[in-house]
Each structure stands twice: as C-alpha cells, then as structure tokens.
Amino acid sequence: MRYLSGGESHGPCLTGIIEGLPAGLNLNREEIDRQLARRQHGYGRGGRMSIERDRVEILSGLRFNQTIGSPLTLQIKNRDWENWQKLMAPYGDPPHDAEPLTRPRPGHADLAGGLKYNHDDLRLVLERSSARETAMRVAVGSVGRVLLEKFGFTFYSHVVRIGSFFSKAAVDELPTLAEQIEESPLRCADREAEALMIKEIDRAGQDGDTLGGIIELVVTGVPPGLGSHVHWDRRIDGRLSGALSSIQGIKGVEVGAGFSAASQPGSAVHDPITFKSGSGISRPSNMAGGLEGGITNGQLLIIRIAMKPIPTLAKPLPSVDWQTGRDAPGAVERSDVCAVPSVAVVAEAVAAWELCVAFRNKFAGDYMEEVEAAYHYYIKKVSDRLRKTTGEI
Ligand code: EPS
C-alpha cells in the first residue's frame, strides 16, 4: 500500500490517493470526518481553525461504502481558499499588490526551502511545509485505521507534557481515561497538570511566544510479527519513527523505555519471558514498548514523540530580509501558540498508516475475506505456539 498527497495550505484543497487497499472494506466517510474533527480540537490553536470545518470527499475507489480495490481518492476543501484566491491562483498573473515573503522565520522551512527551490517569495515554501497538510495525513491514516480496527487494534494518544508541565497519567490507565482525554482541551488525562499547561499557553500567547510538548501514543491489539528483522527497511521501529518524525515540528521519537534505557544495565531494561501452564508464554513487563528486533512482539505499542515550539512567533526572532541582505525580524504570520493536542491525533493516524502497510505486507490479499483468512490462520499458529509447554518450543 502507498499513498501520495498534494495541496497547499491556502490553495483550493488537499488531495490524497491511496493505492493497494483490498476490495470489500466497509468505509464510512463519517468515520474519516470524525478523525478530522478530532485533529481540529485543542487549546492554543489560532484563527485558522475557526475558518476550517474539515470534511472528506471520496472521489474514487468506493462504491456503496465499500472499497473496490482501485485507488481511493480523498479530497478536503480549504475553506480559507476563498480569502486567498487571488494570491494563490493556479492560473493567470500575480496581483500587483502581492507582497512576497522575504524574511525567513528561524526554525521554519523558509530559508532552507527557498535555497533549495530557488524561490524569491518564501510563501512558496510556507504553503506546502505548513502543518495544514496533516489534515490529509489524518484522512489517509483513518482509512488504514478502519482496516486495523476490524482486527482488534485500538489507538490511544495523550499529551504528557506541554512547556514545563507533565501529566502523571500512566499507560495502563489510558483505556479508562479515554473519554476524559477526548473531552480535554489539551488531550491531557491529568486535570491538575492540564490547568497549569493552559496557563502556560496563555502566558506564551501574551508574550508572542509558542510552546511544544510531548505526546504518548499507545496501540493495543497489535499481533506479533509486523515488520521484520531480515532487512533494515522492513524494521517496523524504523518505519514508525521515520513516519512520526516526518510530522511537522517533531524532533524526537522514543520507543518504550527509549532514551532512559541507555543509562541502565541490560538486566533492568529487557523484559523477561515467562511460561505459565494454561496461559503459556507471557511478558511481565514492557520496557521494549512492543517492539523487539524491528518486529512487533504482541505487547502494547508505546511510543513518545517530542514536538518543538511552532517557529512562527508573534514576537519574531532576528532574521535577514533576503532580498536586501539587511537585518530584519522573521516574518510574522497568523499561526498557533501550541498545536501539541492536534499533533497527537496526527500521530495516531500516521502510526495507523504505517502499521496498516506492515499488516498488509504480512496479510496480503486483494479482498477482505482473503486478508481475514490469512490473519486468522496466522493468529491460530501463534496462539498454538505460545501455549505449548516450554520443552516443546
Ligand atoms: C500553520 C499555520 C496556521 C495553522 C496551520 C499550520 O495556518 P494559517 O497560516 O492559515 O493561519 O493553523 O494549521 C492548519 C491550517 C491546520 O489545518 O492544522 C503552519 O504554518 O504550519
């Protein structure tokens, strides 16, 4: 399975095309819209979110709510396009009052992108580097998620840090806290920490500043055997880390114990393997975060990602006007103070897509019944193997 996406932040729409879906997958547009709405929530977002009401249009690959095996084309309209039609017109000449963006924002793609593509107007970098693109990633990931949910996968995400405040919520509490997290303006399961985080976002906004944070992503119901140790580009930890760190603003990805494992002895880091008659082989701990040797091991998948503060600052950092070569503050654009809660939803979708690709590599098939048969055959094999006595393994 693969997908491509296109679309500028203030262009007419975002488009995604997914290729390689099996036929016969039930897909409701409302489910994709529900995920799109989740991404739009979150305290700290700017004016743009009150303009957009993201909804998906499905233009091919679906008939009577069932995939037919052909490419699935998704479209999300940009409502803000109305205000940008002249400046972002695909045809004709630029309006004479168009102001080019020439003061690159430190931390943004502006400078490196302008050099790479030889653009005079850095708006041409901003338009595609914008996190607006994550709306399509959520739509695409939601399709993968619908498929995986049919096989018992469940996705959770919560915000564990914003600025200097931490949530105390633990991974095993997430299923019971899921509703509270959905209702929280920060996707934070710790109410006390949430109140402090909100104050910190308000303070940053007043100071013309921005804030980053840390998100924890947990997936349950993942069978052992997705990904592979046999080749570097099939290692699922690499696929997930690469995809998650490609989300705008992400500067770090940790799997399981992550960086803390580097400072502990092996005996404290690795998860023992135990056998109990009746239930078979199990793992009493999960420091590995569900991944060993580039393969899912059947435990909860636990990943944390760190987002830097958004680089568009209302009180800008020093920069240079690259038309004149003179010192000038970085460009100021309408933006968000904190988008960490939205990125949590994006991370769920991005992980769902990568897991779905690995799932389809393991359980190939052109139609759902074929995929289901392959899955159930394998799950029975795994379960038989795990339940045998120690001596027989
Ligand atoms: C973004 C800047 C803001 C955000 C945008 C990402 O947009 P604008 O420049 O139009 O105010 O609101 O996020 C979205 C549009 C979205 O849908 O999440 C940026 O520069 O990355």
Concise description?
The chain is an alpha+beta fold and 393 residues long. The chain has twelve helices and 17 strands.
Class derived from helix and strand content: alpha+beta
- The fold-level CATH name is Chorismate synthase, AroC fold
Shape: globular
Ligand identities: ligand EPS
Q: Low-confidence parts, pLDDT < 50 over ≥5 residues?
A: none
User: How do the SSEs run, as a string of H and E?
Assistant: EEHHEEEEHHHHEEHHEHEHEEEEEEEHH
Taking the alpha carbons of the first and last residues, their distance comes to 34 Å
Taking the sheet with the most strands, its summary is: 5 strands, antiparallel
Radius of gyration over all CA atoms, rounded: 23 Å
Per CATH, which architecture? Answer: 4-Layer Sandwich
Which CATH class? Answer: Alpha Beta
Mean of the pLDDT scores? 96
The CATH superfamily bears the name: Chorismate synthase AroC
Give a count of the beta strands, DSSP E runs of length 2 or more.
17
Helical proportion, percent range: 25-40%
Number of spatially distinct domains: 1
Q: Going across the major beta sheet, what is the strand order?
A: 8-7-9-15-10
Can you count the helices? 12
Proportion of residues in β-strands: 15-25%
